[in-house]
Each structure stands twice: as C-alpha cells, then as structure tokens.
Automatic annotation (TrEMBL):
Residues of the active site: D69 (proton acceptor)
GO terms for cellular component: cytoplasm
A family per Pfam: Maf
Protein's name according to its UniProt entry: dTTP/UTP pyrophosphatase
Record NCBIfam families: maf (TIGR00172)
Source species: Alteribacter lacisalsi
Any single GO BP term: nucleotide metabolic process
GO MF, one example: UTP diphosphatase activity
Domain of life assignment: Bacteria
Amino acid sequence: MTRLILASQSPRRKELLEQAHVPFQTISSDIEEWTDPALSPGELVVSLAEQKAEAVFRKHPENIVLGSDTVVAIGSEVLGKPADGDDARSMLRKLSGTSHSVYTGVAVIADGKRETFYEKSDVYFYPLTDEEIDAYIRSGEPFDKAGSYGIQGLGAVLVERISGDYFAIVGLPLARTVRVLKEFGVNWQA
Ligand SMILES: Cc1cn([C@H]2C[C@H](O)[C@@H](COP(=O)(O)OP(=O)(O)OP(=O)(O)O)O2)c(=O)[nH]c1=O
C-alpha cells in the first residue's frame, strides 16, 4: 500500500521524488495560500508547505502527507511566481548580475507526528541584457516558477554558480526530505 501522498501539482517535485525511488501518489492541495507579511522567508515557506500538507491530510488522515513551497528572496523582497511577462521582466532585472536566496520549505504530516524544515540556497546570476531577458521570457519558462526562472531548464544559462542544495532550488531538498521520510517509516527502494 502506498502511504505517502505528495500534496503538489508541481511536475518538478513529482520527478524529484521519483528520482529518489520513494513510493508515493500525488494529490494536489488546491488551497487558497494564506501568508502573514510579518513572516521571514524561511517561516513563510514552512507555513505554506504546512498549509498544503494539512489540506490534503484532512481528507486523507490515514496517510503520510508531504507539502512543499519555494520562494525567491532578494534584499527584503520576496518573489513568487510572476503574474505576467512584465512582472517576469521586472523580477529578472532584479536578479541580473547579483545573488539571491531560494527558500524551500517542507512539511511532513502523519497522525500524531509532524516535521517541518526549510533550506536556503544562494544563486548568483550573470548580468543579463534586456535582449536575453526578453528571449528567456519568450521561451515561456518563467511563468510557473518562483523568481521567474527554472535552473533545471533553459534558466541554467543565466546562473553563474550556486551555494547550497541544487534540488531545493528546483523545488524539493531531496536528500534531507528522504531522511525525514525515513522517520515516518517511508524508505527509498533500490
Ligand atoms: C527558483 C526555481 C523555482 N522553480 C519552481 C519550483 C516550484 O514548482 C515553483 C514555485 O511554486 P510553489 O508555489 O512552491 O509550487 P507549485 O505551485 O509549482 O506546486 P505545488 O504548490 O502544487 O507544490 O517554482 C523551479 O522549477 N526552478 C527554479 O530554479
């Protein structure tokens, strides 16, 4: 029986968990995300990860539910997914030629047990010309991604280097998540 549910509609999170050979099924949480502006980026992604996991756990209380959330933070500003092309352009201009932090929160909930954590990874962008930014937006890649880029896709050409967990930037800190899942009795299989 598959006891683990990934509370996510993100194809990246599904692929990452598959990469770890963990048995699971996916059920999207479909929640109205609620955020308190006073939260730090780390607290924010943990709160959103918990909200996603809780929404699915309420309907499936016999299961173990994993929720996750990713935001980009630059200075005091937190960037989620872009609303449109102009929003994506303004985010990519901010990220150009400088470093930002990617925060990914994880929540695992089961009956009587809950574990949460977040990972912070730093990403250094090359300076980008307006032409490069516009071409990248035309690729369509920015639209469903925090900070308007995907390091695992064409967005790789924007990145000079990273410090931290690559997989957390893509959307799930894989090895640490697998270690937490082990505490819930969920193990990867060869
Ligand atoms: C920075 C960055 C983000 N992202 C993605 C990861 C997340 O899917 C997305 C941030 O949005 P999230 O709200 O974290 O997740 P989601 O809406 O895609 O999926 P769900 O809530 O159902 O789990 O940005 C990348 O794919 N690559 C990157 O390099």
